[in-house]
Design a protein that fits this description.
Layout (H helix, E strand, L loop, with lengths): L2 H20 L4 H10 L4 H11 L1 H10 L1 H4 L3 H24 L2 H30 L9 H17 L4 H12 L4 H26 L4 H20 L6 H20 L2
Helix pairs in contact: 1-2, 1-4, 1-11, 2-3, 2-12, 3-10, 3-11, 4-10, 4-11, 6-8, 6-10, 7-9, 7-12, 8-9, 8-10, 9-10
């Protein structure tokens, strides 16, 4: 990796850390960058998941005020996220590399659709007043399924979790966003720990992403909500399409 490529990875980490805190699609920025600097798709995905863990934790800490009073939800839903993350990570390293290369473009398209429709989805969810405050078993299994997705790939995992919680929980969106940051952080954490032992990790990429994403997580928590969402989503769509092209032309 050249110096300029390293700088690009750090900058991508900053951007991803902020996006993950505010929107939840940072992988669509960092994954194409790792592909562009020469990492194979599975190695790029594994290293990306591990490198963004510090940023996810940073964003969760930045939203600590919105987490107050949600300890019960965290305790109930965290096992679902952790279990799902473990299963997703195992699927990533046990399925053939060709399966990942074939599946990921489809997952990216799904993630991009989720990112694009999130404003519409949020408007719909903001008018809900009759949802179960706990979400019940349906919420638990929804978070579990999102954890599997996050452990396997993770792009727009946060958007998926927000959509599930928004349908099933009657709560302010910012408080749900704080809870989302905790759940997705632990999915990335458990998947990342597993990857250390069972997968090939590009440690330089992990370090560069970690540095950038910690900074980005704090930026996202402090000022990210003031940035134009349309701009963020536009960039995400562009880099997502770039990732698809990169994968399909390898």
């Amino acid at each position: 990796m050249t110096v300029w490529e390293a700088i690009a990875v750090v900058i991508a980490g900053v951007f991803a850390g902020g996006i993950n805190t505010v929107v939840g699609s940072g992988t669509l920025v960092t994954f194409p960058v790792l592909l562009a600097v020469g990492y194979p798709p599975v190695v790029a995905n594994v290293s990306n998941s591990l490198g963004l863990v510090p940023g996810s934790l940073s964003g969760a800490w930045g939203y600590r005020e919105e987490l107050k009073g949600q300890a019960g939800r965290v305790k109930r839903l965290l096992p679902a996220s952790i279990l799902g993350g473990v299963i997703g990570a195992i699927l990533l390293v046990t399925l053939p590399d060709k399966a990942f290369t074939a599946i990921v473009p489809v997952l990216i398209v799904i993630a991009l659709v989720l990112v694009v429709i999130q404003p519409w989805l949020n408007r719909k969810l903001s008018h809900r007043r009759n949802a179960d405050s706990d979400g019940g078993l349906l919420l638990w299994f929804g978070v579990f399924a999102a954890g599997i997705y996050g452990g396997y790939f993770g792009a727009a995992q946060g958007v998926l979790v927000m959509g599930i919680m928004g349908v099933l929980v009657n709560e302010h969106l910012q408080r749900m966003n704080a809870l989302k940051n905790v759940l997705t952080a632990f999915v990335n954490l458990v998947a990342g720990v597993l990857f250390i032992f069972i997968a090939d990790v590009a440690w330089l990429a992990v370090l560069l992403l970690a540095v950038g994403s910690v900074v980005g997580g704090q930026i996202g928590a402090k000022i990210g909500r003031k940035l134009p969402p349309a701009v963020l989503r536009g960039v995400i769509v562009v880099v997502g399409v770039a990732a698809i092209v990169q994968l399909l032309t390898k």
